[in-house]
Every structure is written in structure tokens, then in C-alpha cells.
Amino acid sequence: MKTIFTATLGTETNTFSALPTGLQLFQETCLYRRGGYGDQAPMFGVPLQIWRRRAEERGWRTVESLCAFAMPAGKTVRKVYEDFRDEIIADLTASLPVDAVLLSLHGAMVAEGYDDAEGDLLAQVRRIVGPDVPIDAELDLHANVSRRKLESVTAMVLFKEYPHIDVPERAEDLFVLIADAVEGRTKPVIGWFDCRTIGVFHTTRQPMRGLVDKCAALEGKDGVLSVSIVHGFPWADVADLGSKVVVVTDGDKVKAERLARELGMEFFRLRHETQPRYVTLDQAMARAATHNQPHPLVLADCSDNAGGGAASDSTFILQAMLEKGITDGAIGMFWDPMAVRIAFEAGEGAALDIRLGGKLGPTSGPPLDLRATVTGLARDATVRFGGRDVIHVAVGDMAAFDVGGIAIVCNTLRSQCKSLDCFTNVGVEIGKKKVVVVKSMQHFHAAYAPIAAEIMYVAVPGAVAPDFLTMNYVNASRNQWPFVEDPFAAT
Ligand SMILES: [Zn+2]
User: Fold this and answer.
1) Ion ligand 1 neighbours, Cβ < 5 Å
2) Which residue, 296, 321, 281, is CA-closest to 449?
3) For 117, which of 64, 111, 233, 259 could close a Cys bridge (C-beta 3.0–4.6 Å)?
4) Per-10-residue mean pLDDT, the chain, length 491
5) CA of 142 relative to ligand 1 center, distance in Å
6) Ligand 1 mean position to 9 CA, how many Å?
7) From ligand 1's centre to the CA of 164, what distance in Å?
8) Stated pTM of the model
9) 138 C-alpha vs ligand 1 centroid, how far in Å?
């Protein structure tokens, strides 16, 4: 009987964020042992669930270790990372011999003293199992993939879609990859290429849509086992910041490297077209003033995206809506446990004065003093990810307020506004609203595009403002676009 060892560890670290990632943040986001999440798998636990099911179907044994993931914030506290890593290594050591190791990681986790935390973990796993046991990892496409990671694994598969609606599909891909290797049908080898490009790449529109489809179409033919585009996570000042293409072939490293280069250069050539078109706050408000369609104008508050490590309590857009006299709108979700607590104390229907948002420093903007009516309350709420039933995200207690026709949703566990339940959980119906603001960079897109008349990405100040040229990178290479127009020119 074969034995596979599985674990989840990760977070997406914004090294510029003032919020530390400690044990409590893991406990609030996702911290389970040996499948303790039951039927409600968290996003990065979904692969563990799938791998266990597929292994059981083959009569294999699964040893499931830690499942730990934290909502993105600043660097992970050193001891927290080391304890998690050591727990996985201890579980693995106790399970030897194993036939394969499958890990669900993020790929952009930075801990104090470890700029490449998951690279450190993978290297230790390799040391424990030796050179011949396959180690495969599923990563978020916002990973910063180091040479250390690439050299420690047998294969890696990254999400293809942004928004990340394909976590289960990529887990299935990875299982097939490893099962074929374990049963001796294939010998996966990796080729990769550094695209020397920093940016944000939505796969919901061209030209990224076409490139992703092209990568997927190459898989399963002519010895190509897997093709992944690594988008990178730009709010991390680490040496490995950047985009890459990773190709896994059956035993042909030269082919893997050639294909990675070919696709990587295509990705690079598309760099100007792939970047999202951002609008200013003034442009967004001007459009809101003239919007008169039956469905909402959806504004993405990209710069306050909790999923990128922001506080999710910035007030720039709400303040502008109030100043412009918008009386038919919705905005969510503000991470404001104090406002939620006050709403629960006062109860539904109560009118009260609240001081909203603006608590986490200059990137959060000023707090707003508002006369508000409590319109909805929900305890221990969860939201779905991209509308999918298989992925549940705990968002804590929620409260909805009405301020002059604008519905404001607050919650107690900092979380990105990913699905419609971020509003409907507290009775806010947004389908007929004029303006809906979502604190999200892009994950909102899967659920909101079907109900939106129009979507605009608004660049305001914030912890994840999409302005890489002004960011204070010290460790990241500046021989990348957009710092230089053509970083390949000299080579
Ligand atoms: Zn991501």
C-alpha cells in the first residue's frame, strides 16, 4: 500500500503592512490538524480534502498533518512559522517511509528571518524524505517562486485563474501528476523562466485569458504535464519577487526550459496590455453620478484589499460617496470590530452615532463620524469564495448600517469582499443598487461580474495601492519591468 503525506501552510505576506501575522491570525483564518475542518474546508484546505479522497479511491493511505493559513498581513512572527514548520517535519518524520509528499502552500509567505519561508519548509521536507520521493506543491499564482522552491520539489502546479476559482481543479491536476510518478508512469522534471515583470494580471480578460487557455491546451500532450504562470506578489520586498513560467514535462528538461522561455517571453511582451486600467477616485465618482442603468456600477477598492494585506477599513471612497451625495449605494466590508460590537449592543433598527474605519494609520484614511441606523446583524458568518459552495471563509460577526441610503457592511474578522454574501448575509440586496463598492483587488469579479452593469478598478491611497514605481523596494531586483522598459535588452 502507498502512503502519501499532506499538509497546508501559508499566507501571502505584504512586507509593507503594519499588521503582524501571529498565531491569532492563523487561529482566526484557518488552523486545523488531521482534517479537523470536517466538511467545511477552508480555501487552502480544499486540496487536502481532494487528495485524501483520490488516495482512498486507489486504496492508498493518507497522513494529513497541519492545515494552517493566515489572512494576508505583514511578516509572520518567527516562532509561529518555526513551530508550524517543525510540526510538519515531526509529523513527516514519524510517518516515514512515505511514497509522496503533497503540500498546499501559498508561495509568498515571509516570516521574520525567512524571506522565503515556504522555500525553507520545502528544503527541509526534501532533506527528510531524500532525493527520490516525489514532493509536489500546489501554489497560489501570487507566489514568489524562488530557485530554492523549484529545486526542492519534483513538480509544482499553480492556480491558473485570477480570481482563484480553480483551486479544486489544480488539486486534481497535481494528484494525477504525483500518482503517475508514484506508479512509475512518468518522471516529472521542471523547467522555468524568469519573466522579469512585476504587475497585476487579471485572467478574466484578454490578453491573459488567451495565454492561460493556451497554457492549459498544451498540457497532457507531447510529454507536457503541466504549465503554470507565476504572477508573483508585488507587495513583498524579497529577492524572489517577480513573475515566472514553470513547465513540468515527462523527463525532458530541455523541452521544459524551452517552452517556459517561449511562454515567458510571450507573457513579457504582453506586459503593457495585461495591466488593469485603474481610474482615479474623481473619475469613479463622475461615472457614479451619471450611472443610470438598472444594475450597479461596481467599484473595486483595490488599494484596501485585505487579501493583499490591507486593513480593509479605509474611508477614501466612502467619504467621496458621501460628499457627492450618492444616496443609493453599498460598500463592504469594513474591518471594524468596534462598530460591529456597538451595533449588536444597540440592536437592529437602532439609530446611533458611530466612528467608522480609518483606524490602521494613514493608509486607512480618516475615521468617519456618522449617524447610522443598524439594518442587519449576523453572528459567526461565513462567505463563499467566488460563489462556490465548496469554499467557506469565516468572516466573524457582521453588521449593516444605513447612512443616507448607503448600506455599509462591517465585520470582525478582516476579510476580502469576495462574494455576494458579504452583503446578503446582513440583508443588503445589491442587485438594484446604483453604486456598489467592494474592498477587493479582483476576487470579487467571479461573483459580481454577472450582476454588474460596469466594473471599475479604483486606485486610491492604501496598503496595496497598485503603484509599484513609487514603492520602496530594497531587496527585490529592479532589473524588471516597469522599473526598466526592457530588462532583457542587455542580455
Ligand atoms: Zn492569490
Assistant:
1) 140, 142
2) 296
3) 111
4) 97 93 96 92 93 97 98 97 98 98 98 98 98 98 98 98 94 97 97 97 96 98 98 97 98 98 98 95 96 96 95 97 97 98 98 96 94 98 75 91 98 95 97 96 93 96 91 94 93 63
5) 5
6) 14
7) 7
8) 0.92
9) 12
